[in-house]
Amino acid sequence: MKTAVSLSPLTEASFYILISLTTPLHGYGIMKQVEDLSRGRLKLAPGTLYGALSTLQQHHLIRQVEEPVPPFTHDSTERNPDASSTLRADASREHRRGKQSGREKKEYIATDLGISLISYETQRLAELAEHGRAALKAAALSGISVPTDLERRDSEQQKGENA
Amino acid sequence: MINKQKQTMKVWKFFWAWQDNDEAAWLQQMSSQGWHLERTDLLRYTFRKGEPTDCAYGIAWGSTGKNDETEFLSLYEDAGWELIDRMSSYYYFRNTNPEQTTIKDSGEANAIFSNNESRMRHYRRILTFVAVISTPVFIMLLNGTLQAGLSRPGFFGSFYKVFTVIIGLYLILFIFGTIKLIGTISRRKRSLKE
After folding, report:
1. SS3 of A25, please?
2. Does the pLDDT of residue A87 top 70, yes or no?
3. What is the pTM of this model?
4. Which of the four, A18, B47, B49, B139, has the lowest number of CB atoms within 10 Å?
5. What ipTM does this complex have?
6. Residues of B in contact with A51 (CB under 8 A)
7. Cβ of B111 under 8 Å from any chain A Cβ?
8. Which residue among A27, A47, A103 places its CB closest to the CB of B113?
């Protein structure tokens, strides 16, 4: 089995999927969670999610939950205290509905290797952000204008073009 | 060909495997004119007349195995994608709420994928199918018919010769496809976007 370090760097989509799986979720639950976490910026299309899930499974970073996990187990809340409770309730409701209609939905959860990789990636990304901020500070000091809030500016620019 | 009574239209059209964005864009345009995809056969698309709507289309190269398929399809369905039809291993999906897709952000019409990595993966899987499975089969068939054609005189011999030419043409097509797919994948590899 590969080590967490050798699997780095993860793509943004894979990273968000992995961190949303500190609690068990099924496919659609992952999509919603990733969209929520990134404040709507990262929308996972189903083809992308499906491919990423099988790659993450191949590398033993996530696994399928054999039995449906009841919401708010000790383990899952301890690992991710911020996990949105409404999402969990949604997921379990969906799960029951799936069961009633005879359609089981697979749930996934991060493995220990997955958690190690989250830890490694988090450090790596913090380093990236730190160096990025330092570079911007240096640029600002040397008189280069540093744009902030690019996303809003881009969308306003687009609106202007459309008008 | 329009069938006025049934309100359907059949269109013969060919897209290569690496033209999925063009194909999805075309289906999108047909829907905006009120012709919604209903059925896909080899090289033939059947549309049904309806209200012109703004739709997003998705073309995915399918899963393997039966258990996998239910999981695969329920995921797409939950995300708002309706399965229209499948042609060979290609699955055609429609999303009647294109605002929810990444179609506008990415500028790529096949909205079943949202990043470069998964698009590359899609082409790679098709390439594996084309190169690893099809090419050896064609080579074996070609070899078989060629030898049979040479060893048998008369009517059967010429039948095998014609057959050999047809398979030879198919083989050329598949080699062309392999080369183009490798080109598509390496162009995407050079992209800065993940």
Report:
1. strand
2. no
3. 0.80
4. B139
5. 0.85
6. 117-118, 121-122
7. yes
8. A47
